[in-house]
Amino acid sequence: GVSETIVHTWLPKLVASVNSAHPNLSLEIEVDITPNLRARLLAQEIDLAFLLGPLSFSNIRNRVLCDYPIAFVASPALGLGSGTLTVHELARFPIITFPRKTQPYEIIRSLFNRPGVPHTRLHASASLATVIHMAIEGLGIAVIPTAIVEHELKEGRLQLLTTDLQVPTLTFSASWLAAPDTLAVELVAGLAAELAQG
Question: Is residue 3 classed exposed, middle or buried when 0-12, 13-18 and 19+ CB atoms within 10 A define those classes?
Fold first, then answer.
């Protein structure tokens, strides 16, 4: 099970690495949000999850993989590139971000759901590719990890916004159920840790 942020960063390298190092190991990859991945892991429907973590259950083993800062990004067409933007200035635009029921969505919602802040339209999507595309098209301000929009920032299709809001960094972990036969899972988690931190 894989969070979509990982899909957009180092998952392809991990698949290539697993294919090379362990050619007899087959991977079945399912992309979902962390709450669903956690539930599926606990129900033993998946063997390994790359998700927001680490998970604090006595029967779960974790390996911290990486931290991704979150930032506000927008199309240069919106003209928001100069100066520090306040929550009131940001709230004039739709905010495009992670799907409901995720930790980042709740954090972002809480930043805008405060007394004195105008009603903010939050557009949530389970597809980060959709979030990026909507931001490039100027449909709002995206709040996503900068690691997944490096190309768009370099190409000038998106620009990093300076704001007065603090969004916590996302920490991802490899998590699996403790069991005697987890060697393959631990090997994949080890490869993932090397790639994520490399």
Answer: buried
Query: For 18-55, b where at least 16 C-beta lie within 10 A, e where not — what string?
Result: beeeeeeeeeeeebbbbebbbeebbeeebbbbbbbbbb
Please, is 64 exposed, middle or buried when counting C-beta atoms within 10 Å of its C-beta (0-12, 13-18, 19+)?
middle
| Measured distance CA(20)–CA(192) in Å, rounded | 14
How would you write the pLDDT of the chain (198 residues) with one tens digit per residue?
Answer: 999 999 999 999 999 999 999 999 889 999 999 999 999 999 999 999 999 999 999 999 999 999 999 999 999 999 998 899 999 999 999 999 999 999 999 999 999 999 999 899 999 998 999 999 999 999 999 999 999 999 999 999 999 999 999 999 999 999 999 988 888 999 999 999 999 987
Contact 18, 191 (CB under 8 A): yes
pTM of the model: 0.91
Q: Is the peptide bond before 54 cis (omega within 30 degrees of 0)?
A: yes
